[in-house]
Amino acid sequence: MKREDSGFLNEEEKKTIKQEIRWKSFQELLGVRDNKFFKASSWLWRNTFARLGEDWVFLALLGIIMALLSYVMDKGISMCTNSRVWLYRDLTNHPVAQYLAWVSLPVCLILFSAGFVHLVAPQSIGSGIPEMKTILRGVALKEYLTFKTLVAKVIGLTATLGSGMPLGKEGPFVHIASIVSQLLSKIITSFQSIYENESRNTEMLAAACAVGVGACFAAPVGGVLFSIEVTTTYFAVRNYWRGFFAAVCGATVFRLLAVWFQKADTVTALFATNFTADFPFDPQELFVFALIGLVSGLGGALYVWVHRKYVLFMRSNKRMNKFLQKNRFLYPGIVSLIVATLSFPLGFGQFIAGELSTHEQVHQLFSNFTWSKNELTVEQAAIVSNWRTAGTNVFINLIVYLLFTFFFSIVASTIPVPSGIFIPVFKIGAAFGRLVGEAMHLWFPYGVRYGGKLAPIIPGGYSVVGAAAFSGAVTHTVSVGVIVFEMTGQITHIVPVMIASLVSNAVAALLQPSMYDSIILIKKLPYLPDLLPSGSGMYNIYVEDFMVRNVKFIWKGISYQKLKEILKANKGLRSLPIVDSPESPVLLGSVQRYELIKMIDKHIGREKRLEVAAKWMKEAEEKAREEQERLRREAEELQKTRRPSRFEVSPAPDILKLRERANNEMLPPQAKKETSTGFSPVFGTQPKKSILKKTNSFTLKGFTPLSPHSPTHTPYTTITGGTESRIRSAFDIIFRKSATLQDVTPDPEVGSIGTPSISGTEGIPLTPGISKKVQLPRERVIDMSAEDQKAWELEEMGKPIDVENLHIDPAPFQLVERTSILKVHSLFSMVGINHAYVTNVGKLVGVVALKELRQAIENVNSGTLTPESVKQKQEEEAKALAQKEAENGDRLTFLVVAKS
C-alpha cells in the first residue's frame, strides 16, 4: 500500500510525501551525504562561519542578498523608465506616434507581469505584508515562501514598477526578504540542523521583514521599527538585534553599491534634503503641523475605506465580472491603458508631472525652495516647470496630482500583479504637505515673527511632515517618521513629524483599520483580530461559550484500523489529542497527523510487507531443508538395516523414462522446456532423487533471477509434499519465477524486467544484440500474493498501535472552561499557537482553534456575543434537551403499552 494512494491523506500531505520521496531518492542517487563536496562544505562551515555564530552569518547573508536584489531591481526599473522617456522624446515628433510610444511600453509590461505571475506563482500577487502578518501569527500559507514565488515576485515587481503605475515596492520587498530567509534556512539546514526548529524560522522571518524595508529605503532603524509595528502583535525582544544587524547590512551594502556602480560621491540619503538647521520652523507653525496630521488622519481613513469599497464593488458587480472574466488580461490592460493615457505629457500628464519618475517626483516635492515666488534660478525654474503650465499654477497642479494619485493608486492596486501601497500614499502626503507649505508662504511671504526674529517658511519641510503623516495614517505606524529622517538625511523636523504622525494615527485608528488589516479582512485570511477596548463584555465571555465539544481523539489501545478511519474522516486536522481511554479521556498529549500516517505506513507499508514475505519464504526453505535432511537420514538408516542381496536389480530404460516424464508433468510449461533442454538455472547441476514423502503446503510468489523475461501473468506456486525431485523442482519454480516482479528502482527508459518479450523463445534466455540494451536488476524482491497480502493487512490492522514508539507532545497548550476570551486572545497572539485543548480535572472536554477564537472575537466586537446571549443560548439548549428526553420517554411508554 503506497502512502500517497491511501484514502486518509489530503492533497497537501500527498504532495509533501511525494516531495520527500523524490528528494530522498535524489540524495541516494547522488550520494549527497557521502560525497566529498558535501563533506568538504560541512567541514568548512563548521570550522569557519559556524564558529563565528550561525545567526550572524545567516543575517549578514540575508542583508547582502536583499541589497543585491534591491539594486538590480532598481536598475531594471530605471532602464524601463528611461526607455519609455526615450521612446517619447527621441523616437518621433508626431503627437500620435509619441502617444503610442508612451502608452505601448507600460501596457506591455503590465500584461507581461500579469501573465508571468499567474503562470509561475499566483501567490506573488499583491503586497505581501498582510500574508506575512498571517504567517508570523502561526498560520501556514500554501506555497507562499517558495523559490518560484520569489522568481515571480522579483520579475513581476520589476515589470510593474517599470511601467510607471502609481504603485510601490515596500510591501513586496518584505515578502521577498521573507522568502530569501526561508530558502536560506532550508539550505543551511543541510549543514546545521538548528534551523529546522520552527521557532527559529519564525525569528528569522521577523528579521527578514525588517531587512525588506531597510533594503528598500536604505533605512535600517525605521525598517526594524516599521516591521515590528506592522507584522507583529507581540514582539520578542531577543529578535531585536537580529532585525537591526540584518537591516544595517542590507542598507549599507545597498548604498555602497550606488557608490561603486553609479559613481556616487559618498553614501548619501535616498531623498537628501538641505533644510536650514539653525531655524527650520517657528513654534507657531506647530499648530499647522498638527492640523496637517488631523487632515492626514481623515484622508488616510478615507483612503482605506475607498479601497475596500472599490474592491467589494468589483467583486459584487456581476455584469462587470462577466465581462472581465472573458480574459484575464482585460482588466490589467484596460487599467494600464487608462493610467498611461492620463499621464501622457502632452495631454493630462502636464498637470500631474507625468514625465517624471516616482523618485524624481518625491525629490522635487522635498526641494528646499518656494515654488510660488517670482525670482527663480535656472535649476529651480526647471523643477517648477514640471508643476505648472501656461494656464495653471502650482496649487492647481498639486491638487490635481493629489487627486489623481489618490484614486488611481487604489485602482492600480487591484491589478493582479506584485505591488505595494506605501510609495503612493507617501507621494500623496508629500503633495498635500507641499500644498500647505506653499499656501503658508503665500499667506506669510516674509515668514512668521517670533521673539523678534523673522524666519522664512520652508515648504519642503511641510512636504516631509505631510508624507510621514499620511503614510502613517494609512499603515497605522509612527515609525514612518524615522523612515523619513533616514530617507532625507535630516532630523531638523523631528518634532513636527512626530506630532503630525501621532495625531494622524489617533484619528485614523478611530475611523478605520490599517490598510493591511483591511486587506486581511477582504481576503479573509485566518488572522486573529484585536479585541476592541469598548467591548467590556469580553471579560465575561469564557472558553466554554465558544469551544468545540465534539473532539476527535485517539487512545492508547486503539487499533490501526480505527486510527485509519479517524484520520480518513478528519482530513483537516493537523494533530490529534491522545487520551488514556474513551471511558476516561484523561489528556496525555497530542500527536501530529503526519506522525500517525508514518506509523501506519511503517506497520503495513511495502517495506514491512516485503520483510514479512522474505521471512515467510526463509521459514519455508528451512522447513523444506529439514524435511529433506530427515528423509535422507531415514533413507540411510533403511539402507543400513536392509539385508544385502546377492543380485543387483536395475530398472528397465522405459521405466526410467516414464518416471522422468511423470516428474516433468509436475512442472509448469517453462520448467518443462528448461528441463528438456538440459538448462537448470539453480539446481541444474545436481542429480535428482525420488523420495516420496509428504510435507506441508505453502503459497509463495516465485521468481527467476537469471531469466531475462517472463510472462505477464504471475502464477502462485504451491510447495507440496512428494519426492525429493518434487521439492527440488518446486524450489526451482520459486527461484525461477521472481522475474515477474519489478525492480526496486527500475529504469523508466528501459522498463521493468517483468515486461513480456515480443520475440524469442520463452524458456531460453535471449542473447542481447548490438542495438538492444539490457539492464541488469539491482535488487530482487519477494512479495506476497494478493490473497496473502489482504489477509496479512487485515490481521495487522486489527492490532493495537505502538504508543511507545510514537512521537507524542506531552505538554500541548491547555485551557480550562472558565478561561476568559481576553486571556485566550493574549495566549494565541503571544505564543503563536493555532489550537489549544480544554480540560476539566485533566479530562478532555473541548478544543479551541484559531477559527473558533476568531469568530468569537468578531462576535464580541460586533456585540452579538454577550453574557446575556450566552445565557439565553444555554437556556434554549437545556429546553431542547428536556423536550427531547420527554419525547423519548413518551415513545418508550407508547412502546411498552403497545407491547402489553
TrEMBL record:
On whether Kinase is a keyword of this UniProt record, the answer is: no
Source species, domain of life:
Eukaryota
Coiled-coil intervals, chain numbering: 610-641
One Pfam family this sequence matches: Voltage_CLC
Which chain regions cross the lipid bilayer?
56-73, 99-121, 204-228, 240-261, 286-308, 329-353, 394-413, 425-444, 464-485, 497-516
Provide ranges: composition bias, Low complexity.
Answer: 704-721
Q: How does it sit in the membrane?
A: Multi-pass membrane protein
InterPro entries in alphabetical order: CBS_dom (IPR000644), CBS_dom_sf (IPR046342), Cl-channel_core (IPR014743), Cl_channel_volt-gated (IPR050970), ClC (IPR001807)
Q: Which UniProt keywords apply?
A: CBS domain, Chloride, Coiled coil, Ion transport, Membrane, Repeat, Transmembrane, Transmembrane helix, Transport
Q: Where is this region: Disordered?
A: 702-721, 746-766
- Which parts of the sequence belong to the CBS domain? 547-607
Subcellular location as annotated: Membrane
Family statement drawn from the similarity comment of this UniProt entry: Belongs to the chloride channel (TC 2.A.49) family.
Q: Which PANTHER family match?
A: CHLORIDE CHANNEL PROTEIN 2 (PTHR45720)
Name used for this protein in its record: Chloride channel protein
